[in-house]
Structure prediction request, 418 residues.
Amino acid sequence: MPKTISIIGGGPSGCTLAILLVRKGHKVILFNEKNPSEIFVGESMIPALMPILQELGIEDKVKEFSVYKPGASVWIDEKTMAEASFGGGMGTLPTYAYNTNRKKFDELLLETAKNEGVHVVDSKAELYRENDKVFLAETTILATKGLLTKQPDFIVDASGRKRILSNLLKLPTTKGQRMDTALFAHVEEREFSENYGDIHMHLATKGWCWRIPLPGKTSVGVVVNKEEMAKYGNSLEEQFDNYLQQAPKLKPFFKDVKRIGGIQKYSNYQLQSNRIIGENWALIGDAAGFLDPVFSSGLYFSMKYASELAKVFDEEGSLTLKDFQENWSKELNSWKKMIEIWYNGRLFTNYKMGSDRLDGFIGKKIGQHAIKHFTAIFTGEAVNDKYSMRLLKFMTGPLLDFMRFTRMHRYDVKDLEL
Ligand SMILES: Cc1cc2nc3c(=O)[nH]c(=O)nc-3n(C[C@H](O)[C@H](O)[C@H](O)COP(=O)(O)OP(=O)(O)OC[C@H]3O[C@@H](n4cnc5c(N)ncnc54)[C@H](O)[C@@H]3O)c2cc1C
Prediction:
């Protein structure tokens, strides 16, 4: 039976769900409060997002305003760079992704939704609750100009960091351990002499930074411990510029960086709702939870679980709401593990230890095996694969400790802790 579904928020998660639901014959009313910002974070994609862009039928258009991304390059220090090419995984996903103009990406998604028959209402939605059920406010129903004359059958919160439903229902949340500040700006195009198209990341002092090549400009962001950041100045401009130009591992790369436009600040973004479904509602995208920018997984994770939620509304009912929540939570935990080993120094200590041994027979065999699985995890291909995840945990956990204990390597994970 076709249902009437209201979605709050016309970002990537809301539009993905809206498009897929309307294709299944449901009536979809998408409320979208315009975001006044000219710059948006969320510009770098991972390969696991490609099948979703293809399913939505937008990949060719995305390509027009994006830079082809073949992998990721991480500078552990000024001289040591680790490159992961997306071609090194298991072979079930495209071996590329894109770095995109987020404004154009969001506009394209919204335009596609409209063309497919989603009713887009350009206004802010307001809700109220009765126990665990949620309803659109009378003024919000009126704003649809007759599209809705009564309450919809189901309401989805895709409002991003506004998290309107979680706040209304006072849903319990889990906060991440990192209390970093992320400062972000566009700068004049930088030369990417090495691995053009890759996202470039640099480990730095109590934090890290990204460089993302975009058409005609470069996106630069720094993600740094709050107290550390305060040492670099009072204003956002001072902190951003000084950190890039003074932090020892960054200095050589950002000598004459020139910002274009303003700086955006994000903080306390590691937050997830412990419950993302209810009697007549569900949460998707950042409204359900956001972990960390480090592996560029935000768009993929938001859009993937928007597409999973659409399956709950299949005629065959191929997924229950409970399955949807369980799958989301399981995958979220895998990403959490990956984020943990980035910040606690274990991922790159493992890389250094492995690099020392790649020439030997055993090192070569184990090394190639691990690289394949690790690459597949970070592209999103094997993030739900038990064996790959166990291998990652083992090699960056007990194996690393055992080899240090038996003096088979000399690295201290603390040296690369951020
Ligand atoms: C520092 C940082 C860097 C990041 N970098 C990356 C990256 O490189 N790659 C990546 O994939 N992800 C990245 N992300 C994450 C990514 O930006 C988000 O995961 C993604 O934007 C989530 O999409 P969404 O649709 O859930 O929410 P949003 O994109 O926030 O969209 C929500 C929409 O809802 C609208 N809205 C809000 N309230 C209402 C209301 N009451 N009524 C109507 N409309 C409303 C808003 O105006 C907005 O348009 C980064 C995040 C951070 C914090």
Observations:
- The CA atoms of residues 192 and 200 lie 9 Å apart.
- The chain has three domains: 4-65+101-173+271-334, 180-267, 344-416.
